[in-house]
User: What shape does this take?
Amino acid sequence: MNALTRCLDTYWSSSIGKKLIVAITGLVLVVFLAGHLSGNLLMYVGREAFNEYAHFLHTMLHGAGVWIARIGLLVMLVLHVAATISLTRQNRAARQAYEHKATIQASKSSRIMIVSGLTILAFVIFHILHYTVRVDSDLAKLGATDPYGMVVVGFRNPLVVIFYVISMTLLCSHLSHGVASIFQTLGLRSKKAQGLIKQISLAYSLAIWAGFISIPISVLAGIINL
Assistant: This one.
């Protein structure tokens, strides 16, 4: 156990180790977002389709599946944020030590990523309280029998929708840089493929942004309703 602890500590202490943690956890979260959006878009199909999807998630593996997924995603998110913060501190220290232009640019990029990342983390906490824990009693009543209705009622609040849209915009700004960084860290980006990877990152980010914000906006516009 001591050898394993020392190994993990050494891995975490290295810049390369933390970059790999950010890349791998980021990749897991990117795949999750695509799957999560696919399920959410069933809101456009109708109440029955969305409620069947929600029922499947909550009964998968006799109800354990959704909790395994939640705990796993929470671990990925915490590791991603912690490693990113640590790397940002290292970049800042390097900038102060060397005052090199490239290092300064990297540090500025890191600061943008950390601000958007922390805002996204705040949104995730709010989203969990809103739709998973259901601190709102009205949502709690609907969530047990009608997840479709719960989503509609939840997004009828303009303030919730504004916060959701801002958070999704920051998320996709984060993704537009982060997806390309994943390719680079995992050694999958070459000079020849750099332009294509950038286009893929932007296209993915825009698709995620448009898909997620369309649902609350459609609820406010009355396109999705009870």
User: Anything to note?
Assistant: The chain has one domain: 18-221. Residues 23 and 181 are 7 Å apart (CA to CA). The chain has a mean pLDDT of 82.
